[in-house]
Amino acid sequence: MPARRFADGEVVMGRWPGSVLYYEVQVTGYNDVTHLYTVKYKDGTELELKESDIRSQSSFKPRKSQSSSSSPSRRNTSRSRSRSPGRPGRGRRRSSSQSRERKEDKKRTAQETDLVLLVLFKMNENNTRRYNGEPDSTGRNDTSCKILEQKFKPDLEIQRVLDQYSLHSRREEKKKEEIYSEKKIFEAATSTASTEKASPKTKELEFGGRIGTFMMMLLLPATVLYLLLMCKQDDPSLLNFPPPLPALESLWETRVFGIVLLWFFLQALFYLLPIGKVVEGLPLSSGRKLHYRINGFYAFVLTAASIGALLYFQFELTYLYDHFLQFAVSAAAFSLGLSIYLYVRSLRTPEEELAPGGNSGYLVYDFFTGHELNPRIGSFDLKYFCELRPGLIGWVVINLAMLLAEMKLHNLSAPSLAMVLVNGFQLLYVVDALWNEEAVLTTMDITHDGFGFMLAFGDLVWVPFVYSLQAFYLVTHPTAISWPVASAITVLNCIGYYIFRSANSQKNRFRRNPSDPKLAYLKFIPTATGKGLLVTGWWGFVRHPNYLGDIIMALAWSLPCGFNHILPYFYVIYFICLLVHREARDEHHCKKKYGLAWERYCQRVPYRIFPYIY
């Protein structure tokens, strides 16, 4: 094991990732496994650096100027030449002109260096902000750049002439090469810094670590089973626990599992159709960008046409309601098999393609959170496909089956108003997600979280079978609501949807095109990482306005079920807990990443989700 060179608390000089610049940092820790030092910059930013990127402060002592090192003999020779009787004063004039030339050369070189470094800094700053979805300085600091360009233009014209006729000294040429090499370094800064941080193991474990994730793999399927069994009861009160358990053999049916497989592969077929545009995702740690086909809305239209054809040919869609438990168990079994496949294939995945949050080295934890970031079979992205297609579209199909089951069970010629509201609200949510499919590419599910049991079970089981809980509840527990009440609930849902959509649209436009004229009014706090923290618009109102809109919509989905039982409001309670957990995770991550800038942001935007409350 190599000996450790720098001790905790020692103040040293650390190289900023992707550049040749060194800054004063303090060593705060050392990882014996990865041999990386954790250092803290003056602004609070913490990074992990290799030992080769750290130097002692003594190695940065200023060197003496070159002029002071000239030999006395040269000074004497110059003096004697200037006093030659045959050339009175000529040597002095030559010395003065040479001095002026040297000063002009130094001035011209300094000006060119300043301008080039300024341009490179602006390029690096703008590229970094575009990568992270923050506003760049385009359109804001153009005036200063033009003034500098006008100021240095005559000197640069002279410089072009010197370049054309190769009138530079070797020292100037070497300095020029160093200056222009900075451009390549700055262009690769983002990818280099990310690559250096790709391989370290996951240190901070979420969800209670290994024990917590193991318990969640047992509790999540049990929770789904419990909720569905309770909805079947005549009195779905929490006091009636536990509900009557069905026989184990009644929970499995091969035909149902075949339908689940058919549904999954049908959506995969729609995904592979060469329709819709192809877009680039955000850069990976290696700097590479994956391509994604945006055709989720087309898949929804094709699915709707297929369901319409089945209904036209008298197919009983209520089969879903009659075998709802079997469908849930089959989907859970499929998600477990998919998770095993994902983990096994991730063992052969290159280190830089692993998920930053699922590389702990613990089997259970990595299996749950996802070991590989973007598992693909050719161009077929498994995580991106499961994020919106089988579960989300399946949610709408299940809701429709519940609506038809209610009409059949109660001999209704039309569905109840409560069922119409639930179907309509949730249909709007799904269609919106598919219409704005490109926005999912900037979410943490795609950019940060690996694809393991957590996302596989969530996308294929939790979303279609728990999110449809209100519709499933209304089939056996009909609720009569008046038109004024229905109108009030509709207004509430519209408010939540407006907040949710406008906040997400603002964020996504901001990440994709920070120079969008529609976002010119937005202000931000700059950070040491080159990113900016929005302090105006929806993101200056609360830190997570999209979460606020989600919670309001979830409440509107549950209100049509009435207040006889708390079971339909499970989704609201779950959603609040989920978003509070996500918000706490975001807070911890941003505080570590942005340092003092995040503290300034929190002072500027004090409320997290609920204004004046939390």
Question: Can you offer a commentary on this structure?
Answer:
This protein has 614 residues and is α+β, with helices and mostly antiparallel strands. The protein has three domains: 10-59, SH3 type barrels (Roll), CATH 2.30.30.140; 206-479, no CATH class; 481-613, no CATH class. It has helices at 72-82, 90-132, 142-164, 170-187, 189-196, 209-232, 254-272, 296-312, 319-322, 324-346, 363-369, 382-409, 417-435, 444-447, 453-466, 469-476, 483-512, 545-558, 570-594, 596-604; strands spanning 11-15, 22-31, 36-41, 46-49, 54-55, 277-280, 291-294, 376-377, 380-381, 524-526, 532-534. Helix 6 (209-232) crosses helix 11 (363-369), helix 6 (209-232) packs parallel to helix 15 and helix 7 packs across helix 10 (324-346). It is globular, with a radius of gyration of 32 Å.
SSE blueprint and pairings:
Elements (H helix, E strand, L loop, with lengths): L10 E5 L6 E10 L4 E6 L4 E4 L4 E2 L16 H11 L7 H43 L9 H23 L5 H18 L1 H8 L12 H24 L21 H19 L4 E4 L10 E4 L1 H17 L6 H4 L1 H23 L16 H7 L6 E2 L2 E2 H28 L7 H19 L8 H4 L5 H14 L2 H8 L6 H30 L11 E3 L5 E3 L10 H14 L11 H25 L1 H9 L10
Antiparallel strand pairs: 1-2, 1-5, 2-3, 3-4, 6-7, 8-9, 10-11
Helix pairs in contact: 1-2, 2-3, 2-4, 6-10, 6-11, 6-15, 6-16, 7-10, 8-12, 10-15, 12-13, 12-15, 12-16, 13-16, 13-17, 13-18, 17-18, 18-19, 19-20
GO cellular component, one term: nuclear inner membrane
InterPro entries: ERG24_DHCR-like (IPR001171), Lamin-B_rcpt_of_tudor (IPR019023), Sterol_reductase_CS (IPR018083), Tudor (IPR002999)
Subcellular location: Cytoplasm; Endoplasmic reticulum membrane; Nucleus inner membrane
